[in-house]
Amino acid sequence: MLNTLLDQIEVFPIMGTALDSANTMKLDFSPNNKTLETIDLGNTDAFNTYVFGILEQSSKTYGIGGYFEHRAIYRRSTVFATNEKAFRDIHLGVDIWAEAGHPVFAPLDGKIHSFQDNAGFGNYGPTIILEHQVETVTFYSLYGHLALSDLENLEVGQNINKGDLLCHLGPFPENGDWPPHLHFQLMWTMMGLVGDFPGVCSRAEMEKFQKICPDPNIIIGFKDED
């Protein structure tokens, strides 16, 4: 449905430049990546060294991935911890990993739906949610792990134009204490929430959230030519 809506609309690159195999590589944070077992993921500095070491070795500016990925990295934080059956480890958005301070641009016209600092180890940190309308269809985009300064001077209902500088990748620990990256997610409904929305679900909830959260690659447009 979103593909059809966006067919006639040129989307502005979220990171200011098109992401392709020349500047971007996919990163695997699933249990298939056994290297993760050797890293103290609770130590953000060690986690950061791992992520950006991979990018440096590959001469890439960006790492990308994660839509509905079963992830092995969430046991680093009690934010995701419930009982084992309901443990939230299915990622609902796409992460774009890049250096702190990197600018993030609005991909489409919209307005500020809500924003807040979702503070806490492993949480979103500073978060902005935009509301978009294409023809008669409304949907939402979420930007998490931002810089605290990005929340200054924002107003609910404020118009945001496609291509506007929206925010920046935040440094840890203010970004929720993660290696710098953008969590970008799309939602058909906010489920009554303000300033926050689940970015990870349990395997029991996958069917529900697959209906609510379309693939963000529709907007990101990453072209992996390898």
Automatic annotation (TrEMBL):
Molecular-function GO term, any one: metalloendopeptidase activity
Alphabetized SUPFAM superfamilies for the sequence: Duplicated hybrid motif
Domain M23ase beta-sheet core: start-end pairs: 90-188
Stored InterPro entries: Cell_wall_metabolism_enzyme (IPR050570), Dup_hybrid_motif (IPR011055), M23ase_b-sheet_dom (IPR016047)
Gene3D superfamilies per UniProt: Glucose Permease (Domain IIA)
PANTHER family reported for this sequence: MUREIN HYDROLASE ACTIVATOR ENVC (PTHR21666:SF270), PEPTIDASE-RELATED (PTHR21666)
The protein's name: Metalloendopeptidase-like membrane protein
Lineage: Bacteria, Pseudomonadati, Bacteroidota, Cytophagia, Cytophagales
